[in-house]
Structures are given as structure tokens and as C-alpha cells.
Design a protein that fits this description.
This protein is mostly helical. It has eight helices and no strands. The chain folds into two domains: 90 residues, Orthogonal Bundle (Rna Polymerase Sigma Factor, Chain: A); 75 residues, Orthogonal Bundle (Arc Repressor Mutant, subunit A), CATH 1.10.10.
Length: 166
């Protein structure tokens, strides 16, 4: 209920209310971007997504759909980011780039990013942001059943892929 009041207040121009929305939705937007982009790019684009959301907040007609709406902005921003890159740049994470202490994390992230798109966001929302299935459902607009299936199948594929690399 508080989130709906914050959305309404933010639509009326209340920057503090929008800051609360930013705090609440930042992990979700980060996970959506992380499912599609290298870590450095995802971190940089989170703020761009929220600037776009602030500028377009008047277009949101159903306040209950804020989560899905801001996730859609993030997805579109990730696509725009890839389109803006030169065609010669690779579209995959370079796991050799991180420091030795982060290689395992980057290897897992690269494995998640190689999964079918349907599983990436839910897995990252669970593994990175720490959300439960119902919280993922609430924030993405997916049904709890879809989230459960995506997490189960995605984890199975991830375990399989990580096991192949050992």
C-alpha cells in the first residue's frame, strides 16, 4: 500500500517519494539489467532507467503495474545499449577480466547470462537480490507459478552448466 502512495506522490512531483521507489526497486532493475549486460554496464544503466522512469512517470496509468513498467524500461534500455555498441564488440561477458577473487562470481554470472531469457531475471532476483518467489512475483508481475517454474528449471540448467565447466 505504501508503494502505491509513493507512486501517486511521485506522479505529483514528490522527489522524496520517488527516492523511496528508487530504493525499493533498485535491486529489481539491477537484476533485470544484469541478466542482459556485463556487470559494469548494468551498474551504470540503473540510474538511467530511473531517470527515464521519473521523466515518464506521468504515462503510468495503473499504479499497480509500476514494477512491470520499470522492468520494461530496464529491458528496453538494455536492448538500446547493445544497439549502440559497435558491431565488432562481443555480446558476452569476458570472465578473464575480473580480479582472481571475483572469477567464480563472474563465471556464474556468465553461465546465468547464457541461459534462456525466461530464467535469467528470476534467477538473478533470487541469487543476487535475495528475493523470495512471492517477492519476485510481486515485483515482476509474473505469477507465483511461473516464478517457481523459472527458478526450478533455471537452477537445474545453471547447475548443469556450471558442472560442465569443472
Amino acid at each position: 500500500m505504501t508503494a502505491l502512495l509513493d507512486i501517486e506522490a511521485a506522479q505529483a512531483g514528490d522527489k522524496a517519494a520517488f527516492a523511496r521507489l528508487h530504493t525499493r526497486w533498485h535491486p529489481v532493475v539491477h537484476a533485470v539489467l544484469l541478466a542482459r549486460l556485463p556487470v559494469e554496464d548494468a551498474e551504470d544503466l540503473v540510474q538511467e532507467v530511473f531517470v527515464t522512469a521519473w521523466l515518464r512517470l506521468g504515462e503510468l496509468t495503473d499504479r499497480n503495474a509500476f514494477g512491470g513498467w520499470v522492468c520494461a524500461i530496464a529491458r528496453h534500455r538494455a536492448v538500446d545499449h547493445w544497439r549502440a555498441r559497435r558491431p565488432t564488440e562481443p555480446l558476452t561477458v569476458d570472465p578473464a577480466a575480473p580480479p582472481a577473487s571475483d572469477r567464480g562470481v563472474h563465471d556464474v554470472l556468465a553461465a546465468v547470462q547464457a541461459l534462456p531469457e525466461a530464467y535469467r531475471e528470476t534467477l538473478l532476483l533470487r541469487l543476487v537480490a535475495g528475493y523470495t518467489g512471492p517477492e519476485i512475483s510481486e515485483r515482476t508481475g509474473l505469477t507465483e507459478g511461473s516464478v517457481r517454474v523459472n527458478l526450478t528449471r533455471g537452477m537445474a540448467l545453471l547447475r548443469e552448466r556450471i558442472g560442465e565447466h569443472r
